[in-house]
C-alpha cells in the first residue's frame, strides 16, 4: 500500500498497489452488465451468469435472488430485487439496483427524483461504497458551489476507502480539477491508475494517455479500454489510429524499445484482428488512397504476426529447456523457475519479421533481415 496525503493534510489517501482480487473484477463485470454501466451493454442473463461464477459477497447475494432463474424483463428483475428490500432493513444493494436496473443514468439530474436521492444519501451515509460513488457522480454534474464540491469530494473519498472502482475515478477528477481539495496531479494520477486496474474503461483510456506514445504501457491501457468497451466504438477506433505512429516511425526508436512497443501492439490487436480492415476502411482513413489504407492494414497485421510468432518461439524455447533439464535430472523447482523466466523474457527479445514470407528470425545486436540470413546460410551450404 502506498500512502499519499493531500496538500491540506485533512485526508490520508491510501492507494493500493497490489493487484485487484479477481473475484472483485468478476463482480464489477456482473454489476456493469446488470446496470448497463462502464460502457457495457445491459444484459441481465449475462449478469446473472457472471455472478453465479463469482464468490464476491455481492455476487453471492445476487445469485441467491435469482435462484437459478433468468429474468425476462427489467420489470421482473426489479420485482425480484423489491422482494428482498423491506422498509425496515432497506437493503442498500436492493434499493440502489432496483432504481438503476431500469437504465436510469444517475448523472442526469432530470432523472433523479427527490425520494431516491434522499434515500441514496442515507445509504451512502451508512457506508455503502457504491452509493457514495453515485452521490459524488450526481453532484459532479454541476459543480458551481463550494459546498457541493466538498460533498462530492468527501463521498468519493469515503468510497475509495472500500476500494470502490467508481469512487477512484471520481476522486481522480477531484484532485485534477481541485474540486473540494487542492489540485494535486500526482494523487489524481495514482487514483486514476487504481480505477484502471479495477476495470473502469474510461479510466483505462485516460491512464494510457498519461504515458508517452512510444511506451508499451500506453498501448497496454488503451488496448484494455478498447477491448472492454462495448457501447462506444471510439475506444477501438482511437486505439487503432494511435498505433500508426510507432508502426510507421518505429525506426526512430531505440533498438531495445522497438520490439517491446510492437509486441504490446500485437498482443492487443490480436483480439480485434478481424475488425482491423473494417475500422481502417470506414474511419479516419477514408480520405487516404487505397494504397495507403493497404499499407496501414499491413502494418497493423505485422504487429499481430510478430506477437504470435514471438510467443510461439519462446514457448518452443521453454519446451527445449525442459527436455534438457529432464535429461540432466535438474530439480523440478529450478526447472519451473527457469522456464518461467524464459517465458517472461518474450517481451524483451529481439525478433524481426520479413514481410515477404512472414519469416521471423532472432536478432542479436544487429538489424540483419531474414532474407540476408537465408542467403548467407545458402552460401555456406554451397561451400560444403
Please provide a brief summary of the model.
The protein is mainly alpha-helical. The protein has helices spanning about 20-35, 45-50, 55-65, 75-85, 90-100, 115-125, 130-140, 145-160, 165-175, 185-195, 200-210, 215-230, 235-240, 245-250, 255-270, 275-280, 290-325, 330-345, 370-384, and strands at about 1-5, 10-15, 350-355, 360. Helix 15 crosses helix 17.
Can you describe this structure?
This protein is mainly alpha-helical. It folds into two domains: 2-200, Tetratricopeptide repeat domain (Serine Threonine Protein Phosphatase 5, Tetratricopeptide repeat); 216-349. Helices cover 62% and strands 4% of the residues. The chain contains 19 helices and four strands. It has helices spanning 22-35, 44-52, 57-66, 74-83, 92-100, 114-125, 129-139, 146-160, 165-177, 185-197, 201-209, 216-228, 234-242, 244-249, 255-269, 276-282, 290-327, 332-344, 370-383, and strands at residues 2-5, 12-15, 351-354, 359-362. The strands form two sheets. It has a two-stranded antiparallel ribbon. The protein has a two-stranded antiparallel ribbon with strand order 3-4. Helix 2 crosses helix 3, helix 12 packs parallel to helix 15 (255-269) and helix 16 (276-282) packs antiparallel against helix 17. The radius of gyration is 26 Å and the shape is globular. It starts with a strand and ends with a helix.
Amino acid at each position: 500500500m502506498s500512502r499519499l496525503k493531500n496538500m491540506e493534510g485533512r485526508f490520508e489517501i491510501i492507494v493500493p498497489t497490489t493487484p485487484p482480487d479477481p473475484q472483485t473484477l468478476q463482480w464489477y463485470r456482473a454489476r456493469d452488465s446488470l446496470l448497463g454501466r462502464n460502457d457495457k451493454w445491459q444484459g441481465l442473463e449475462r449478469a446473472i451468469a457472471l455472478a453465479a461464477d463469482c464468490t464476491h459477497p455481492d455476487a453471492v447475494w445476487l445469485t441467491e435472488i435469482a435462484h437459478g432463474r433468468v429474468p425476462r424483463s427489467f420489470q421482473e428483475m426489479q420485482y425480484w430485487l423489491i422482494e428482498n428490500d423491506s422498509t425496515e432493513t432497506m437493503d442498500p444493494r436492493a434499493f440502489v439496483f432496483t432504481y438503476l436496473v431500469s437504465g436510469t443514468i444517475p448523472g442526469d439530474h432530470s432523472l433523479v427524483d427527490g425520494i431516491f436521492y434522499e434515500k441514496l444519501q442515507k445509504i451512502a451515509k451508512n457506508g455503502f461504497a457504491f452509493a457514495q460513488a453515485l452521490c459524488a457522480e450526481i453532484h459532479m454534474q454541476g459543480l458551481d458551489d463550494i459546498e457541493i464540491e466538498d460533498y462530492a469530494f468527501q463521498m468519493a473519498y469515503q468510497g475509495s476507502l472500500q476500494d470502490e472502482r467508481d469512487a477512484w475515478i471520481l476522486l481522480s477528477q477531484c484532485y485534477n480539477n481541485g474540486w473540494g481539495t487542492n489540485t494535486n496531479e500526482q494523487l489524481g494520477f495514482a487514483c486514476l491508475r487504481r480505477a484502471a486496474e479495477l476495470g473502469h474503461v474510461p479510466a483505462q483510456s485516460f491512464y494510457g494517455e498519461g504515458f508517452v506514445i512510444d511506451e508499451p504501457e500506453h498501448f497496454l491501457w488503451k488496448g484494455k479500454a478498447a477491448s472492454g468497451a462495448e457501447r462506444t466504438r471510439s475506444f477501438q477506433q482511437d486505439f487503432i489510429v494511435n498505433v500508426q505512429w510507432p508502426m510507421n516511425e518505429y525506426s526512430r526508436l531505440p533498438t531495445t524499445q522497438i520490439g517491446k512497443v510492437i509486441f504490446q501492439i500485437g498482443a492487443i490487436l490480436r483480439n480485434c484482428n478481424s475488425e482491423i480492415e473494417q475500422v481502417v476502411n470506414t474511419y479516419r482513413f477514408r480520405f487516404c488512397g487505397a494504397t495507403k489504407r493497404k499499407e496501414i492494414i499491413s502494418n497493423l497485421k505485422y504487429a499481430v504476426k510478430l506477437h504470435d510468432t514471438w510467443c510461439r518461439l519462446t514457448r518452443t524455447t521453454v519446451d527445449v529447456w525442459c527436455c534438457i533439464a529432464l535429461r540432466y535430472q535438474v530439480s523440478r523447482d529450478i526447472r519451473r523457475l527457469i522456464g518461467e523466466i524464459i517465458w517472461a523474457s518474450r517481451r524483451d527479445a529481439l525478433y524481426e519479421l520479413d514481410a515477404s514470407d512472414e519469416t521471423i528470425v532472432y536478432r542479436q545486436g544487429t538489424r540483419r533481415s531474414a532474407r540476408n540470413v537465408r542467403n548467407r546460410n545458402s552460401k555456406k551450404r554451397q561451400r560444403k
